[in-house]
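Contributing new records

If you add data, match the layout below exactly. Sequence lines come first and carry their own label; structure lines follow with theirs. Keep one chain per record. Anything else will be rejected by the validation script.
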Amino acid sequence: MRTFIVALGCCALLGCGEPQPQEEVAVETAAAEEVDPNSIQAIQDAQRARESLPGKQHYERACASCHGGAVKKAPHKDMIGLMTPEAILKTLTDGVMQAEAAVLSPAERIEVAEYLSGQPLGAELADIPSCGDDVAFDALIPAVAGNWGVQPENQRYIDGAAAGLDRDDFNKLEPLWAVSFPGANRVRSQPAFAGGLMFVGSHNGIVYALDQDTGCQVWSFQAAGEVRTGIVVSPWGQADPAPSVYFGDVLGNVYGLDARSGAPHWRMRADDHPNATITAAPVLQDKTLYVPISSLEVSLAIDPEYACCTFRGSVLALDAGSGEEIWRTYTIEEEPRVQKQTSAGTDVIGPSGAVVWNTPSLDLERRQLYFGTGENMSSPATTTSDALFAIDMDTGKVNWVFQATANDAWNVACGTSTPQNCPDEDGPDYDFGGASLLAPAAEGDLLIAGQKSGFVHALDPDDGTVVWQTQVGRGGIQGGIHFGIAAAHGRVYVPVSDMADGRTYDRPDRPGMHALDVNTGEILWSTLHEDECNGRNFCHPGISQVPTVVGDVIVAGAMDGIVRAYDGATGEVIWRLDSTEAFKANSGETTRGGSFGGAAGPVAHDGKLVLSSGYGIYNHMPGNLLLVLATPEAAD
């Protein structure tokens, strides 16, 4: 029996908060599901297992000098480990690392790919079939959901007429086509529609332009790493169409491509830090692309010899045509410096963290951009972690900051057998993981955001003062609100995870969907999910993925693999579909979904509903399903 290195996130092993680099646990394939996801020892076992692989010596000979810190921009090897072995091998053979890997034989490159990913190279994988010359970009068909939040304000509302779906249509939906991405165990890039095509990124780092009606491939582009962000599409003129698509990858690169052909316009590294990453879609307004920048350095602190930490979050404004920097605003003004030493004699460097996991929301009237931050990774704690920012769209100047949770400094070392790097504050790790939104209310606009604490905060966008706060979920390291909320019809729709994390809380779990009055924060209804997992591993009843409002219906996928449609006024579940059942992909393979996770929320257009299912990381069910459902009229 071949030994696999099964990818489990640090959140699976430690119950940590926002996504961290995956660790690997060596197990026999037949026993893969028997791994204790809460075992601290599993991390150390994983490290030893990977370091015993034959590719280590080849990596150290050909790669380690750059990726060990000599080249500032070179991603740390744990960042590269987020890629599939197939994607790493492609990078070494005909990608950006082809010249550097020329000293390695073909067999050695395979061993390096398996070492870095912690997984064996799979069999030959079926790709998405090509459309040939039958399908091309149609400039007469405008973009829909060209920005991740649909509106610049991130309300995630799609008009029922534009969606081609009303309340009664949901029970008529049938599978139109499905895609299985080569080498993937998670699907977390939200698609965008434009020109008759659908644009979507993948775990294997390939961005695809697919035909909306069949899912066949019009073009593809290989990025340097996994593309988990949504795809942004620029508007275009009918006389001379020149649309572009924009996205980021897990290694911190941002791209601008020609939407018609996939040809690259530009590529830039958003931050020089070796652990920088782009976890959320940028947002485009006029000719400026606003990019949120995060980092996975927080996981490296589990090593007592790692000097934690030096990364600080930021938002970057780029010229959309050239990729050139216009301005950058850091979430921590002070540059990190040595503060003290740990009991192991390692430098503690800070302040650090306050990373930006989420897509900014835009306020075009006030010319303000809003985003939330994560915790500090090391001491000292700052006043800008677990906070909401308002900054000037044109200059990047900070107008105001609201901190929801003070003194939150935390990293993966906390609670482990090697806690030397754990900050004195030790949590509680209450990030703003999901995006904020701007919604109209009776007394004017409100900036609204959900937090992992389980609270929803509504602020006056003029000065950041609190208008109302409501605790909707239990909250916790794996609880509360994860990837965002939605708003329409005077209501705020709030998904709650409240996944078990091994801790005891004084409030009950509230996994499911909730509606709040936008003016007061009063909970209007709550639809709590029963546990329908029936003993399946890594299955949970809560909602982590961001929802979307389609007409007067809220659509959201849950961690149990089931997508549900809720009546916006009452919370009644009017339709559901189990994505973990078998579906026929257009490559001819049978594929299945898993947990719905991340920021790839449902998208609807022209009688079609698009679902992204599978989240094989952070203690959730793996899956590999991009599913397009359609009404009979749309299918014709």
